[in-house]
Design brief:
By secondary structure, the protein is α+β, with helices and mostly antiparallel strands. It has helices at about 5, 25-65, 70-85, 105-110, 120-135, and strands spanning about 90-95, 140-145, 155-160. The protein has a three-stranded antiparallel beta sheet with strand order 1-3-2.
């Protein structure tokens, strides 16, 4: 025969101090959450470092890049094809506004001396335009192409005829 106490549902077995042994302690939950947060922070920092390195590599390439020996032939073909499509200009370069000495301010404000703010390959491209294309009647303009977060983003250089 069973006693009334034996038929009672048994609760968790208590550990020393009367707390059920299977209950997870808040300190353990805090440790788990802290580890997860630290892993997320580490991953975010690694992603940012990788992205920063990619930007540095791109900027280095931009500052060390030069016009190709066949640039005149490639340019002539590109503008011929654009004219055959009925277009009056081509975009010849796109780069981040932060690569200008003023962050793109002069271009954004359509200042006449915006070319002085160009650096790297953009400056070399403008100098080539100024030397060879401008005397032939070509025109160059610069434009802020996007405004991420309300700030100037990429710049486009366009050559028209």
């Amino acid at each position: 025969m069973t006693t009334p106490e034996a038929s009672k549902p048994q609760g968790p077995s208590p550990a020393p101090g009367g707390v059920p042994a299977q209950l997870i302690r808040p300190s353990e939950l805090k440790r788990i959450a802290d580890e997860k947060e630290e892993a997320a922070i580490t991953e975010a920092l690694e992603r940012k470092a990788k992205l920063d390195q990619q930007h540095k590599d791109l900027y280095k390439e931009f500052t060390e890049r030069h016009l190709r020996p066949d640039a005149d032939k490639r340019f002539s073909e590109a503008v011929r094809q654009a004219a055959e499509r009925g277009e009056r200009e081509v975009q010849v370069l796109r780069f981040p506004s932060k690569w200008c000495t003023d962050g793109g301010r002069a271009i954004n404000n359509a200042e006449a001396d915006w070319p002085r703010t160009l650096t790297g390959f953009a400056k070399e491209s403008f100098d080539a335009f100024d030397k060879w294309l401008k005397p032939m009647g070509y025109k160059m303009r610069a434009e802020i192409l996007d405004f991420p977060g309300g700030m100037p983003g990429d710049i486009g250089l366009f050559i028209g005829w």
